[in-house]
Amino acid sequence: MAETHVTKVGIVGIGFIGSDHLHRLTKTVANVDVTAVCDIVPGKAQKQLDKQGLEAKDYSDYHDLINDPNVEVVVCTANNEAHYEIVMAALKAGKFTFCEKPLALDAKQCMDIINAEEKLGRRMLQVGFMRHYAPEYVQMKKMIDDGVIGKPLMMDQRHYNQTQPEEYDSTRSIIETAIHEIDIDHWLVNDSYANIRVFSPKQTKYVQNKNIQDPQIVMITTKTGINIINEVFVRCQYGYDIKCDVIGEEGVLELPTVPQVATRLNAEYSTAILTDWKARFESAYDIEFRDFINHVSQDQSPVGPSSWDGYIAAVTADAAIKSLNEDGATQDLDFPDTPEFYQENSAVKSV
Q: Domain 135-280+307-339 adopts which CATH fold?
């Protein structure tokens, strides 16, 4: 029997999601050894290693982690502003890379990453759009493809997050929060985007900075005329709430909420609402990393969301920010055809 290969992983950025992935890769995903970590804040990574009872090299410079021969795969969970440089360095070193969303801050940086990856001759990178692995979204996608509700006509969505810090501005609401719907929607309905507009309704009292707009409404029209409405509210006070309804010619698909035990007590019937995005999509994160590691451990290209998916999301997000800054003016979108490079052996293809 062949010996099982243990994939040696280095994680750059040990913050909120980085520490969560550190735990996932050491406690949940099989045949992984996190051999190195790195964080720009001195002592932060080591503190998390100690907390989780783990041992790994603690680098202060991500270049040293990437160039460590004992690191085969780089996981980038650093601040968004650092994604581009870290990913480019990892690809230059010829190492498989997992980058949390967004791939980069704008479309130009994403195209640079695409060009770097294509020079390597095969896919080396996966973007952390974990909803592609969420069982409920996968089921919804299959039902749409099977024509269960006829042709999709509209989508009605919300992405509500509990209180974000004051520095979480209008731009971050798009590139960190709405980016999930921007990525998943065209995949769900098998259609490209034609235009987008973003505007602000009445603002919540929990925004003190008048330059921050929250909530926001994102409206997208696809090439075939499907209308998509997404309410983005990052200072929602009651919990973490995700909704996705796809309205078709014959019926409606409704994304289920996470099952909760109902309580009948004191003349009330109630169920809990989640407050943590990690709990909402925990299974999706687990499935995502198992799939990624399963492929790269065998020296195979990853098949999840690609650099091209990151580019499509970035182009759309750039237009969304422009619309928001122009009082909701509609921004037209036009994308080139998906390169064959990103169509081959890919489970998630942009349209």
A: Dihydrodipicolinate Reductase; domain 2 (3.30.360)
